[in-house]
């Protein structure tokens, strides 16, 4: 998740049963050409695995180059063909690639050729088309190009909070041999279990559900004090900016605090203020 699934948040999710973390989407071109962009965007450490680093790419050479740069440093790279945002599509990144199946396949193929070691995962994330046949053709093509995993956000380009197309995901699972991940509107561990059982997917990918409840896969409730305490410890250990610590807590406390509490919490200006406020109300233990 852009701005959110950075090292500290990944460390928190890993403490509470998340198996594999994805980095925020990085722009392949900037990653290749700018050392400062690499340092700013991709902080990691020895405990930060399994890690998949996700990219926006629109050229096979770029995706192959980032594969070479990251081989041996993480478990895999992912091509984001699920992002529908206008500025992303304007650069020929994101889900606009779903409409260019030859280019999409070539991007995957070039990275796979650059790193033939199948232990290094080269995966893709897509949305779905309205038409099942077109979706299946795209998924087949991605597998044929050498992808090791496919994550499906079960909505079309134009859909936001529409129901996830569970049948389409099931059909993709039945058709492909590689692991397929389910994505979309998972809020609880039960939701994840149901998605897993009803489609036979290899994994369940969660974004907003984890922002609100990083303990979701550990059956924690929203606002669990152990989760909030762990977040505070990680923030202090890794030295993250206050704005990032606070923004994550706004998500984690969103459905937990009363309205007047939320107003006060949102106005706090420093780590010291926030930690004292949380401690006084028993939201954290440390
Ligand atoms: C703040 C935010 C940032 C996101 N950034 C990314 C990203 O970098 N890469 C990506 O593939 N999807 C990104 N997404 C989309 C999610 O991965 C996911 O496909 C979508 O939110 C639906 O899943 P969910 O219901 O679990 O949130 C982002 C979503 C949010 C809310």
From TrEMBL:
Pfam families to which the protein is assigned, alphabetical: Dus
Question: What SUPFAM superfamilies is this protein classified in?
Answer: FMN-linked oxidoreductases
- EC class, as a word, reads oxidoreductase
Active-site residues (renumbered):
83
Q: Which domain of life is it from?
A: Eukaryota
Concerning InterPro entries, the annotation shows: Aldolase_TIM, DUS-like_FMN-bd, DUS_fam
What EC number is given for this enzyme? 1.3.1.-
UniProt keywords, alphabetically: Flavoprotein, FMN, Nucleotide-binding, Oxidoreductase, tRNA processing
Q: Does the keyword Oxidoreductase apply?
A: yes
Positions that bind FMN: 54, 153, 207-208
Per its UniProt record, the required cofactor names are: FMN
Listed GO MF terms: flavin adenine dinucleotide binding; tRNA dihydrouridine synthase activity
Task: List the Gene3D superfamilies.
Answer: Aldolase class I
User: Could you tell me which residue ranges the DUS-like FMN-binding domain spans?
Assistant: 1-257
The family classification in the record reads: Belongs to the dus family.
Protein role:
Catalyzes the synthesis of dihydrouridine, a modified base found in the D-loop of most tRNAs.
* Protein known as: tRNA-dihydrouridine synthase
Q: What is the source species?
A: Oikopleura dioica (Tunicate)
The taxonomic lineage of its organism, from the top, reads: Eukaryota, Metazoa, Chordata, Tunicata, Appendicularia
């Amino acid at each position: 998740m852009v701005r959110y699934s950075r090292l500290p948040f990944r460390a928190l999710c890993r403490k509470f049963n998340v198996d594999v973390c994805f980095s925020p989407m990085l722009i392949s071109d900037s990653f290749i050409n700018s050392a400062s962009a690499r340092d700013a965007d991709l902080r990691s450490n020895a405990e930060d695995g399994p890690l998949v680093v996700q990219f926006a790419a629109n050229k096979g050479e770029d995706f192959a180059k980032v594969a070479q740069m990251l081989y041996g440093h993480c478990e895999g790279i992912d091509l984001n063909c699920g992002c529908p945002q206008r500025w992303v599509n304007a650069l020929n990144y994101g889900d606009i690639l779903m409409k260019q199946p030859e280019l999409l396949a070539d991007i995957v193929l070039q990275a796979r050729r650059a790193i033939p070691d199948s232990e290094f995962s080269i995966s893709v994330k897509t949305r779905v088309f309205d038409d099942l046949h077109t979706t299946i053709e795209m998924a087949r093509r991605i597998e044929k190009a050498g992808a090791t995993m496919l994550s499906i956000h079960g909505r079309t380009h134009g859909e936001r909070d529409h129901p996830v197309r569970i049948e389409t995901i099931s059909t993709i699972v039945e058709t492909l041999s590689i692991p397929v991940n389910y994505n979309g509107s998972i809020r609880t561990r039960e939701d994840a279990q149901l998605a897993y059982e009803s489609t036979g997917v290899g994994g369940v990918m969660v974004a907003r559900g984890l922002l609100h409840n990083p303990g979701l896969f550990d059956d924690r409730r929203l606002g669990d004090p152990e989760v909030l305490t762990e977040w505070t410890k990680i923030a202090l250990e890794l030295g993250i900016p206050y704005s990032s610590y606070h923004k994550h807590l706004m998500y984690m406390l969103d459905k937990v605090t009363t309205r007047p509490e939320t107003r006060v919490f949102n106005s706090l200006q420093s780590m010291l203020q926030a930690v004292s406020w949380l401690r006084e109300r028993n939201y954290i233990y440390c």
